[in-house]
Every structure is written in structure tokens, then in C-alpha cells.
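Researcher: Final request for today, and then I'll write up notes for the group meeting. The sequence and the SMILES for pyridoxal-5'-phosphate follow.
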Amino acid sequence: MIPYLDLKAQYEQVGTEIEAAVVNALRSTRYALGPDVEKFEEDFAAFSNTKYAVAVSSGTSALHLALLAAGVKEGDEVITVPMTFIATVASVHYIGAKPILIDVDPDTYTMNPDNIEAAITSKTKAILPVHLYGQCAQMDKILEIGKKHNIPVIEDAAQAHGAEFNGQRAGSMGLAGCFSFYAGKNLGACGEAGAITTNSEEIAKKLRILRDWGSEKKYDHKYVGFNYRMDGVQGAALGVKLKYLEEWTEKRIVVGKLYSELLKDSGLKLPIPANNNRHVYHIYPVMHPDRDRLQAALTEKDIQSGLHYPIPAHLTEAYSFLGYKAGDFPVAERIAKEELSLPVYAEMPLENVEIVAAALKEII
Ligand SMILES: *Cc1c(COP(=O)(O)O)cnc(C)c1O
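Model: Predicted protein-pyridoxal-5'-phosphate complex:
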């Protein structure tokens, strides 16, 4: 069987080191935040080339707090995309703000900057592009529009640890960048965790207050805050793994490039890293009109695959109240029907990449 992801392969490499760090964290009894989390914040800020990183309990809480820190309030509007994991849209709704969806680009699958200006109203308080599959959105154009209209840009970088746009790291370009360390992400905790990166001292300070019940001084609650602290144990585990992230990212890129080489004449539409982008292949997405048949045939051959995402946010039952309908976002809807995610992880044996590619070509 060829797995979609193999977390055990990674654990074999770093498990002993993680166990030592975690035991140390447990014995210290610093269970919420604490020194391991602070050290991880420093290291993750350095990795992302930002001044600050604020550790939180998940990628979703990172998005929720970043939007709040940027000043988004009930009744405001936030421009984002329908082709993403649902957390992006949910985080806007948690505030009581309205997610205004715009379609994505047919080649990069990320927010199409040409659609932004038509969606801006007097209520627009943030633009929230998603660095989907491991590739940064077209940040130059998005930031330019944000600047022109004085609207902050928040990056959903949950799939893009270490990705780059024109040499700039994911999470370092907007007012804030939101990361998830869910186990299956390019950097995964041993449970739930997330972080927000920023170059703004003011935003970092506000985020630290918001994640810990809105109080700077104990029991003196300045804002309506949250229990969004990162566990000490997760900080310890992430601190170990972060040292390997660059090496793991390079290995993912080798896997991604090998797929692209082997599948170039296969009839599949392959991910095209836009000029000057460092695609970190959180997902290796291929597109084919007969996607479901392809996936079934791969399963038949004992090759796992994934779909990201088969129902775009605007067509989910949960968000039907937003009032969108089928046909509103043709590019996102087409991705939902045609996208197939091939196995990719740092430790993936290259012969397995060859087996998957050969199987796909045979099926097609
Ligand atoms: C995973 C993910 C999130 C949510 O992160 P959690 O840590 O699971 O809360 C948000 N946005 C995107 C694009 C994601 O892939």
C-alpha cells in the first residue's frame, strides 16, 4: 500500500528527541505557554523572517485572533476565497463578520487579485488570501490593492510553512500570517497548535493579550479574550521539529518536482509554481475531468489519495446562509470536481513517486 501520508516515518527520525523534549516539558509542569513555547516563538519568527510569532492553540484560533487584532468587528466584511479549508471562512463568521467570497485563479488556485476591487465596500476590513496547497497567493497585487484602499491583508499560511513569494516568506508579507501545526501540516505538533507571525509590535502585543483571556494583568480583562494558549508540550515538540523543517521542505520539493517531471505528458493538469514562488507542496494537486474514476482506480491499486476540497465553502450546507449558489465561482467549483491530491511527504520513497506516476499514466 502507498499511503497518502506517513507520520510514522517522520517519528522514526525525530521520535527520541521529541520524547526527551516532551518529558522535560512535563517535568517542568509548565503546561500552558512557558519557556518551550517562548523559544519556539522566537525560532518560528526567525524561520518565517518576521519580528514576532505568537503561539496559539490551532490554525483556526490563529485566524480568529489575527482578524480581531486587525480590527475586524461584527458586521464588517472580509474578502476571502471559497476554495480553502473551511476554517478560513469559519474564522470570519466567528467574529460576526461576513465572509465575502471571490473566485480563485485558474492556474495558481489562489485568490484571483482581479476579483478583489469589485468586492470591496465601505464595510471591508480585511483581505484574507490563502496560500493554498503550499504556494503563496499573488501577494504583490493583493498587497497593492490592500494598500490602495487602506485594508489590511491577513495571510492564511496554514499550508505554506517556508513557502516564498519573490523571496519573501509566507506569513511575512501581510499584517499577519496564520499558521496551523495540525499533525498533517508541513510542520505538525503532537496534537493541536498554531501561530501568528507579524512584523507589528502592536499586533503581536494585542495577540498575546487576546489568546490569554484578554488580560495583560491577571484578572484585569482589557478585551473579550479567549483561551487560545499553546500547550507547553506542543511548544517543546514543535521546537524539535522546526530544526528539521527546512530539510523536510526540500525533500517535499524533490517529490513535487519528480511528479511534475514524470507526469508532464500524462494529460493531467499539474501544479504550476508561478514565477519566483517557492512551492512547498503541502499538497501535490493534479486536475483531471475524470477525477473520481482516477481516484477509484488508484484505490484499486492500493494507492491512497486525497481531495482538497470536494465541496467549495459556498456550497457547503453550513454556509448556505451566505446566499451563494452553484455557478457563482466557476473556477473553485471546477477545482472541487477535478482536483486529486497525490501522496506527498518528506520521507516518501522516490520509487513510490514513480509507482504512483506510472499507475496514473496507465489509468489515463
Ligand atoms: C488546516 C487549515 C486551517 C486550520 O488549522 P487548524 O490548526 O486545523 O485549526 C486553516 N486554513 C487552512 C487553509 C488550513 O489548511
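Model: The chain has a mean pLDDT of 97. Residues 58-60, 84-85, 87-88, 130, 156, 158-159, 180, 182, 194 surround pyridoxal-5'-phosphate (CB under 6 Å).
Researcher: Thanks, that's everything.
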